[in-house]
Fold this sequence. Notes:
Elements: E1 7-13, E2 16-24, E3 27-34, E4 37-44, E5 55-63, E6 68-76, E7 91-100
Amino acid sequence: MELLGTYSTARINTNSYNLTYSFPDNCNAVVSNKEGVYCVTINFKKGQTKPSSNYISDNVICEDYNGVIEIQFVQQNYNPIGNGDDNGNGTSTKPKVKIYVNE
Length: 103
């Protein structure tokens, strides 16, 4: 089960794109950026173990670095079939998006 709901990118101009993504309202999403690599980390809020069915959206303006924008979603793992012992302590890095703005 992924915590990421939907995501999309839309070109703003030659060097920047708008990233729109959604995630459960009982999770936190933190965006970091280093040299054109945007990392969106989605984790459960304290005390939460299963994603809510209510999703919220966020937008981020992504600027290129040397003609490339890379977007990575890092999500806390969650096991919906487990016996309750797996609260999603691991992480997965997917999906990934790479945009070449100069091509």
